[in-house]
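Sample pair:
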Amino acid sequence: MSSAVTRPAGPDDLWSVDEHLEDILSTVRPLEPIELQLLDAQGCVLVEDVMVPVSLPPFDNSSMDGYAVRVADVAGASEEFPAALEVVGDVAAGAADPVRVGPGQAARIMTGAPLPPGAETVVPVEWTDGGLGEGPVSGMRARSLAPEGAEGHVHVYRPAEARAHVRAKGSDVRAGDRALEAGTILGPPQIALLAAIGRGTVRVRPRPRVVVLSTGSELVQPGEDLAAGQIYDSNSFALTAAARDAGAIAYRVGAVADDAETLRSTIEDQLIRADLLVTTGGVSVGAYDVVKEALSYIGDEDEAGSGVEFRKLAMQPGKPQGFGAIGPDHTPLLALPGNPVSSYVSFELFVRPAIRALMGLTELHRPRARAALKADAALRSPKGRRQFLRGAYTEGEVTPVGGAGSHLIAALAQADALIVVPEDVESVEPGSEVEVVLLG
């Protein structure tokens, strides 16, 4: 494919982290919007403002179980001198034609029920005798057990101000207000709001479908027995989980053996369900690093923008990287190194922003902060490489976790940040201020 960033093609040429990321983000485009049902739109990004067609709540309603009354009828009420009111009926939630409350009257009202005509306020049932004539009660008896509670008389032991315990029409949002802005990620509260204002569908950019596959004949699936020279496949699990965490619909493909034809066939089969492909392993310079070999056969070489370019980056870990587009739809593919820490760091720096770009988000990257280095000795970093070390971040301080080795997955599990050591820095003393990427 044609890179957006022009670089020399020499075998020893190193791309910077920023150049590689710029090339990826200049190529990846947001997915086309579609109309989805509310629950199918969870995790997606709105592409248009959503306006409120009807006020919430749509009518004045009670926030308590109690009695709807007129203010004057309960003024001065006390336990010694309660107000005695005639109960004219029930007002339940969903009532379409509630009773009218006149002078000296009360309507038994339930939480969420509309305030009936003539009523000015609500007194909680705990302020009354519940119509039983035996002093204050703690609640109402179920209508099915005591239908007579909707008639007779009730004693009220406390006064109530106008519109006490009444939720006013439009007190949440008013018709014509903007409910949600374009660019909003739809989580459970946003889905609830859309449903509450009557929206059954919404126009969004869909969550990208990300296919993750790892390569290596030595890889065995967790739960199986290990033979000599074998290890469990952790990368595909880590990256699939990371893709889901970034907002994607992620599919994990079992480890593929070090055979170019098998890998090529597997990737081609996965193109039908992928908006983005991520491979891990097989991108270095070994005789069995087959990703480069396999990808050289995928795609129409005569079609502009097709193909994967493999690069060396001025970073540690994660020097070998690949990026390009394959297949008839020019599906983006990021080829990551196989060491666990290298692949995960590479995902955070390059794949996560690509996923969020596909979603149409403007905030693509993890948050960053400045922190004081808490360490027993200076950190060493190779000259000319941007190093990313695992760290534990707490209240403005960051402590290195584990060593610099790209295979130290146990240390990665204890880290919640990446310590960034710039290319021109070879040593960082304890107490120095460093930049950290917060992993959440």
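Helices lie at 17-27, 71-74, 188-196, 235-246, 260-270, 291-295, 340-358, 409-413.
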